[in-house]
């Protein structure tokens, strides 16, 4: 099933049902927004847009954190696994805050978005007892070198 959604960046676009992630309690700061579409930027681009289904002005740049920081790891608390009904498969995205250049942009590794790809249920999890922060510069991540080298192209 497809649906047309309104975005502030791309106007009206068509998304597939499997692109829509359901957040039962919204995401922190946007609790009323419970459905977001994950829209890839292109085939060879690691970034996607997480666009609210209901609010065209609300979107987040997201990326699979493991593409930028292969050593990124955290333990998902049991109660979060149960809430999302995660058995084997899990997808993780992190929000990127853009600056004038990718090199100066940052990624929030403290609060990953965890998704059950089987049920398309998601939740932003705030990690505890970790050294991760809300703003890690992309230029300081071990896997970002290839990405940043392409920035000038």
TrEMBL record:
Its main location: cytoplasm. It is found in: Cytoplasm. InterPro entries: Flagellar_assembly_factor_FliW (IPR003775), Flagellar_assmbl_FliW_dom_sf (IPR024046). The keyword Cytoplasm applies. Keywords: Bacterial flagellum biogenesis, Cell projection, Chaperone, Cilium, Cytoplasm, Flagellum, Translation regulation. The keyword Chaperone applies. Pfam families: FliW. HAMAP family: FliW (MF_01185). Belongs to the FliW family. PANTHER family: FLAGELLAR ASSEMBLY FACTOR FLIW. Acts as an anti-CsrA protein, binds CsrA and prevents it from repressing translation of its target genes, one of which is flagellin. Binds to flagellin and participates in the assembly of the flagellum. This is Flagellar assembly factor FliW. It comes from Paenibacillus shunpengii.
